[in-house]
C-alpha cells in the first residue's frame, strides 16, 4: 500500500486540477451511521413516507419527516472531521484542490476547513433548513430548537411555508447549480479521486467516467471493491483516514523538496 500512496501523492503534485469526490464511507469514519445500511434509520421508517411529494401534501407527513430527520441530525451535529476530511482541507491550503464534490450532507468538509466555494454538496446539507415556499434559509440548529420546544413541523417566519432540512429527498430534483458544476469540473480535471463511495447512486456513478473520458487519471479509495475498480488507474482498499493522511504526508514532502 505504501507504493500506491506514494504514487497517488506524485500524481497530486503533478496535477493542475484535482477533483475529490466523497461518499458515505468518509462520514462513517467520523461515526455517522450510513442510513442505508442494515439497522440504519431506513429500517425503522418506511421510505415512502418521506417522498418529497408527501412532505408537501400533508402536515402528518411533515411531522413524521421532522421526527426522522431529527434522529439523523443529532449524530451529525456531534460528529468531527476525521483525518481524511482534514487531508482534503490540507489539499486546498496547498493550492491543490479544484473542488470537493460530496454526497454527504453532514457539513464536515466545512468543519474541516474547506472553503464554501470549493464544496459542491450534491445532496444538499443537513446543516441548513429551507422554506419550501419562499426559499429562505435558516440555520438548522435554530429550527431544531423550535422543534424541541414542540413545533412538530416548523414553518417559515416570513411566509408561513413549510420548512424542510436543505437535503435532497426522494422525489426532489437534484440541485441544478451543484450538479452542473460537478459535471463541468469533473470533465475539466486531470485527477479525479473517489473517497468512500461505492459509486452506485446516480449521478455520482457517471462522474468518474466523465473525468476519465476527458483524460483524467482516476483513483478510488474505498473499503470495498467497486464496479469501477477495473477502470481506475489506481484502487486502494482500506480506511480513508489513514490512507489520505499518508498521501498528504507524501504530497507535503514532495512539494517541500521542490522548493
Ligand atoms: Zn418562507
Tell me the Rg in angstroms: 19 Å
Give the distinct bound molecules: zinc ion
Strand content: 15-25%
| Fraction of residues in H or I helices | 40-55%
Number of helices: 11
Tell me the span between the first and last alpha carbons. Answer: 27 Å
β-strand number:
9
Order of helices and strands: HEHHHHHEHEEEHEHEHEEH
What's the rounded overall pLDDT mean? 93
Structural class: alpha/beta
Low-confidence stretches: none
Q: Tell me about the biggest sheet? A: 6 strands, parallel
How would the global form be characterised? Answer: elongated
Q: Biggest sheet: strands side by side, in what order?
A: 3-2-1-7-8-9
SSE blueprint:
Blueprint: H1 2-14, E1 18-22, H2 24-28, H3 41-44, H4 52-57, H5 59-78, H6 83-93, E2 99-102, H7 108-112, E3 119-121, E4 124-131, E5 137-139, H8 140-148, E6 163-167, H9 176-188, E7 191-195, H10 207-213, E8 217-222, E9 234-237, H11 240-258
Parallel strand pairs: 1-2, 1-7, 2-3, 7-8, 8-9
Antiparallel strand pairs: 4-5, 4-6
Helix pairs in contact: 1-11, 6-11, 9-10
Description:
By secondary structure, the chain is of the alpha/beta class. Helix 1 (2-14) packs across helix 11 (240-258) and helix 6 (83-93) runs parallel beside helix 11. Strand 4 and strand 5 form a beta hairpin. The protein contains 11 helices and 9 strands. Helices cover 43% and strands 17% of the residues. The chain is elongated and about 60 Å long. The model has no long low-confidence stretch (mean pLDDT 93). It has helices spanning 2-14, 24-28, 41-44, 52-57, 59-78, 83-93, 108-112, 140-148, 176-188, 207-213, 240-258, and strands at residues 18-22, 99-102, 119-121, 124-131, 137-139, 163-167, 191-195, 217-222, 234-237. The strands form 2 sheets. It has a 6-stranded parallel beta sheet with strand order 3-2-1-7-8-9, sandwiched between helices. A 3-stranded antiparallel beta sheet has the order 5-4-6.
Amino acid at each position: 500500500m505504501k507504493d500506491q500512496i506514494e504514487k497517488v501523492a506524485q500524481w497530486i503534485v503533478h496535477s493542475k486540477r484535482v477533483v475529490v469526490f466523497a461518499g458515505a464511507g468518509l462520514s462513517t469514519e467520523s461515526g455517522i451511521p450510513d442510513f442505508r445500511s442494515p439497522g440504519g434509520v431506513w429500517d425503522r421508517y418506511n421510505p415512502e413516507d418521506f417522498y418529497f411529494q408527501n412532505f408537501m401534501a400533508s402536515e402528518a407527513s411533515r411531522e413524521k419527516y421532522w421526527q426522522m430527520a431529527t434522529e439523523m441530525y443529532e449524530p451529525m451535529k456531534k460528529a468531527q472531521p476525521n483525518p481524511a476530511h482534514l487531508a482534503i482541507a490540507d489539499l486546498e491550503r496547498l493550492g491543490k484542490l479544484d473542488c470537493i464534490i460530496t454526497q454527504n450532507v453532514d457539513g464536515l468538509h466545512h468543519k474541516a476547513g474547506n472553503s464554501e466555494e470549493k464544496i459542491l454538496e450534491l445532496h444538499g446539507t443537513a446543516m441548513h433548513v429551507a422554506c419550501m415556499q419562499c426559499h429562505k434559509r435558516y440555520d438548522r440548529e435554530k429550527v431544531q430548537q423550535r422543534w424541541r420546544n414542540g413545533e412538530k413541523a416548523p414553518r417559515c417566519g416570513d411566509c408561513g411555508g413549510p420548512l424542510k432540512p436543505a437535503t435532497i429527498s426522494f422525489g426532489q430534483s437534484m440541485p441544478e447549480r451543484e450538479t452542473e458544476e460537478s459535471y463541468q469540473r469533473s470533465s475539466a480535471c486531470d485527477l479525479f479521486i473517489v473517497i468512500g463511495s461505492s459509486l452506485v447512486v446516480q449521478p455520482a456513478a457517471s462522474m468518474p467516467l466523465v473525468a476519465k473520458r476527458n483524460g483524467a487519471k482516476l483513483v478510488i479509495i474505498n473499503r470495498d471493491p467497486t464496479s469501477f475498480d477495473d477502470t481506475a488507474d489506481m484502487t486502494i482498499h482500506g480506511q480513508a483516514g489513514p490512507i489520505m493522511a499518508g498521501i498528504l504526508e507524501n504530497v507535503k514532502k514532495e512539494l517541500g523538496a521542490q522548493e
